[in-house]
Amino acid sequence: MNEITKLLIGAGVLLIMVGLLWQVGGKFLNLGRLPGDIVVEKENFRFYFPIVTCIVISVVLSLILGLFRFFR
Fold first, then answer.
1. Could you name the domain of life of the organism this protein comes from (predicted)?
2. Which range of residues forms the domain containing residue 40?
3. Rounded to whole angstroms, how far apart are CA atoms 50 and 32?
4. Beta strand 38-41 with 46-49: parallel, antiparallel or unpaired?
5. Which residues are within 8 A (CB) of 39 and not within 5 positions of it... i.e. 6 or more apart?
6. Are 16 and 48 within one domain?
7. With contact defined as beta carbons under 8 Å apart, do 8 and 19 qualify?
8. pLDDT at res. 25
9. In the prediction, which pLDDT does 46 show?
10. Mean of the pLDDT values across residues 34-48?
11. Strand partners, 38
12. Residues 59, 12: Cα–Cα separation, whole Å
């Protein structure tokens, strides 16, 4: 199999796993509604920017990828 094909299949499987984890874990983990996430609500307008959630996800992914690089 070609390297690109393996990469695309792996990325697809990873996205499916993350989606399932997000769906199931969303009931237990309060991602997207952490303290520090910005929410502005007006009459006909709602602006939502999950800055703290983005930082937490970035740190977790960096740690996981760092572990993969370390054990490689």
1. Bacteria
2. 31-72
3. 6
4. antiparallel
5. 46, 47, 48, 49
6. no
7. no
8. 72
9. 93
10. 91
11. 49
12. 22
* Same domain for 54 and 20: no
Residue environment code for 30-54, b if the CB has 16+ CB neighbours within 10 A, otherwise e: eeeeeeebeeeeeeeeeeeebebbe
| 36 in the same domain as 24 | no
Domain count along the chain: 2
Q: ∠ CA 53-48-31 to the nearest 5 degrees? A: 25
pLDDT value of residue 72: 64
29 exposure class (CB count in 10 Å sphere: 0-12, 13-18, 19+): middle
Identify the residue whose tokens are 């307008």.
45
